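We emphasize that the prediction below concerns an isolated chain of 206 residues; any contacts that depend on oligomerization or on bound cofactors are therefore not represented. The input was used exactly as deposited, without trimming of termini.
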Amino acid sequence: MSLIEDLAADRLLAIIRGKDVEASIATAIALVDEGVRSMEISLSSADALTVLSEVSSALGDRVRLGAGTVLTPADVDAALDNGATYIVTPAIAPSISTAVDRGVPVLCGALTPTEVLTAIDAGVDAVKLFPVSSMGSRYVKDLRAPFPRTPFIPVGGVGTDEAARFLADGAVAVGVASPLLGDAANGGDLDALRERARRFLKAVQR
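Result of the prediction step, given as a token string:
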């Protein structure tokens, strides 16, 4: 299966952005133990490449592991060298052409129709609609009219209620950071994280 087919089956992409390396690794493991199958480790995290490498080693094919906030060609190389299997960007970035040329799946950050078209023309696999916190799920439905074959993944302030609405309005999956992670990746409560993971997984079920 392709990455997009996997994401369409999972419907939830966890985004880990932490200040504590060990806590970030523990967060990833706890999420996968609860049934979260797809996640990205943001390169803006503390010692993100170590987190990527350790999560990849610990979880292997139990997780679909990507790197987020991948902005430059050097970021692409570093992410892939440390276990990432796809890259995620917050915007149209120089990293995209490097990844596409190497055959690496790309989830590209975009928001406006012009940005979406630019991303599609660059050869990305899906568009990460970011930030969608003030847009609402109707925005996905509106964009699907001119871009019916483009997989959209809304990101930014997506809670459990919003996740269900975005998916109902045509998103292939939702990307979730703080509403799912809370403070777990900074050393916070892993039991609370597990409970939030169960709620999100229930919210995205068909």
